[in-house]
Amino acid sequence: MTGITEFNAAANADTEREHDIQLGLLRELCRVAGAQGDPAVVGEILARLIDYSEAHFASEELLMRMKSYDDYEDHVEDHAQMLDTLRGIAADHARGESALVAGRAAETLDFIGKHIATRDRRFADCVRNNL
């Protein structure tokens, strides 16, 4: 059986891999939408990104609850905002209003990048330090 230090290290590593996948999906969305790619491909990337983000956020939020994380509420609010934005982009795209997808995806990429660099980094530090 592993100790708490090993668990925390593994949790941080898993979360970082999930961030890499999430950011990769967003970058791919920006690339395909920016090149005015096939709308079906854009829709598929959006669906995968939303599904993946929902799963990632649920996992991260569970870990935060397990750790009684003090910034849980604000952190979860960021997750909800990101999911609302992604769902809004997908709804607009499904209605054929795809002209702004690339710009909105780029804004979301920037927001998620900042979220990872600040809120997620703070949480990772707390986990790493067994807090």
Mean pLDDT: 88
Unreliable residue stretches: none
CATH class: Mainly Alpha
What's the helix count? 4
State the shape. elongated
* Rg from Cα: 16 Å
Helix content bin: over 70%
Distance between the termini: 20 Å
CATH superfamily: Hemerythrin-like
Structure, described:
- The protein is an all-alpha fold.
- The chain has one domain (4-128): Hemerythrin-like (Four Helix Bundle (Hemerythrin (Met), subunit A)).
- The protein is built from 4 helices and no strands.
State the gist of this model.
The protein is mostly helical and 131 residues long.
Layout of secondary structure:
Elements: H1 4-34, H2 39-66, H3 72-94, H4 101-128
Helix pairs in contact: 1-2, 1-4, 2-3, 3-4
Label this structure with key terms:
131 residues, mainly alpha, 84% helix, elongated
